[in-house]
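Running co-folding for D-Mannitol-1-phosphate.
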Amino acid sequence: MTHRLSLSTLPHLAENVQRPAVDPRDLGTGLVHLGVGAFHRAHQAVYTEDAMAAGGETRWGIHAVTQRSPRVAEQLAPQDGLYGVLTKGLDDAGSPTAQLRIVGAVREISFPGEQTAAVLSRLAHPATHVVTLTVTEKGYRRSGTGLDLDDDGVRADVAALADELGGRAVDRAAGSPIGMLARGLARRARQDATPITVVTCDNIVHNGAMLTGLVQEFLAAAGADDVADWVHDHVTFPSTMVDRIVPATTDADRAEAEALAGLTDAGLVVAEPFRQWVIEDAFAGPRPAWERAGATLTSDVAPFEDAKLRILNGSHSYLAYRGAVLGHRTIAEAVTDPVLGEEVRAFIDEDVIPTLTPPPGVDLADYRDSVLGRFENPALGHTTIQVAMDGSQKLPVRLLGTARDRLAQAAVPHRAARAVAAWMVFVARAAEGRNGLELDDPLAPTLAEAAADGGRLGERLLGIREIFPAELAEDDRFRSAVLTQVTELSD
Ligand SMILES: NC(=O)c1ccc[n+]([C@@H]2O[C@H](COP(=O)([O-])OP(=O)(O)OC[C@H]3O[C@@H](n4cnc5c(N)ncnc54)[C@H](O)[C@@H]3O)[C@@H](O)[C@H]2O)c1
Ligand SMILES: O=P(O)(O)OC[C@@H](O)[C@@H](O)[C@H](O)[C@H](O)CO
């Protein structure tokens, strides 16, 4: 029988597998992460471990918090927080390569449904200096440009904080990431009150400013004016650009890693070799020396963020929607389809790059080539369906800013309109369950209702204001370009 990865079985790990860069037993907890999905384990946790190793520090062990389900806690807790990152790339001859490293930076793990009290204590603890988040676009529970105060989880958290501030001690399970964070900050304000930094690592435009706004809206709704003032003065929310392609782990990946390690690993994640992290240098207190692990600290993240969200994520979504409808299972298959490959390149060249300011030292044509080259990695198996999910949340971030900026330049964004139309055709096919496609989106009922009006698919979807702001949807140039493309792609 193969043993499971844990601190006690670590000595049995196969020789050619990289051990944790720091001894997990030596680590204190200094960082709380909300939303411990695949991406955090392959990105921020790796940077944090490498930063500790480079700087000889031990205080940045991670308290990782799952969100809606205890699944990741159940995977990691029996393994003492240890898990593998299986890096899949290609060598110079184009043959697949796979390298496995074990990460030991995650030292505690909680599921809010049962351990909200432990998370709130950690958020308030004086040794905690940084909070990071990856809760997906929809996890922020936004409605329009602000917090959705009608969301059940947010409402329950607002009530819980109001009760707590009124002296009615409550440890009710957190119902939303913003509620969890704001309740933790409120407790910190009343206890030790040392400053803290909150770093959102989700693919959202101006993510730091977005998160500050949501936290302040939450505190206003709970009548927590003193806490709001404290947060304003003691908490910073740097913006970040995060990049590493991390697909959902499959059973085949786990079997491959087990063969390499000689141990089973339920918490395994898979990633490409490339990784990048650009962080606004606006910390309220101590932080891991992430720059020693390759991160870039800068005063202005915006050019990096715009280039990444519009070139990489915009093309990813383009390939996902067009590719899924054309029967391509993976992004690698879609980008190497000669027609789609050309289309996505033209989208970047004609519509995206003209809207961007190159980040310092970056040539945008080189960046485009490196992104498209990364998509071609067949070993990753990143499915078009995974990238296609939650389109209602992703379109504004990845495609609509490009369209808006092209219109402001007096240009008709035909290529961006085609990408939006590709999403619309995908929605129609997925709503009908054609070709095995499914509509996985928080707005699925609204989208399916619009799609049921087959002859007016484009008009109906453009009418959804949570996705398309009026000034864009009612711009005749954009509208007509999208409707033309919907007709073309529906054939
Ligand atoms: N995977 C990547 O390649 C990648 C790369 C860059 C950035 N990101 C960012 O990280 C995010 C997470 O990616 P992942 O690969 O870890 O996904 P994942 O599905 O493995 O994990 C998602 C996490 O978000 C939580 N979550 C999802 N919906 C939620 C909701 N409605 N409310 C509260 N929590 C919710 C989940 O519980 C889980 O903890 C992405 O959405 C993106 O913003 C991912
Ligand atoms: O993770 P999602 O679902 O928000 O988006 C899917 C991908 O486009 C995305 O995760 C990219 O792989 C990532 O942004 C690369 O850094």
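Result summary
The chain is about 50% helix and 15% strand.
The chain has two domains: 10-298, 302-490.
Job closed.
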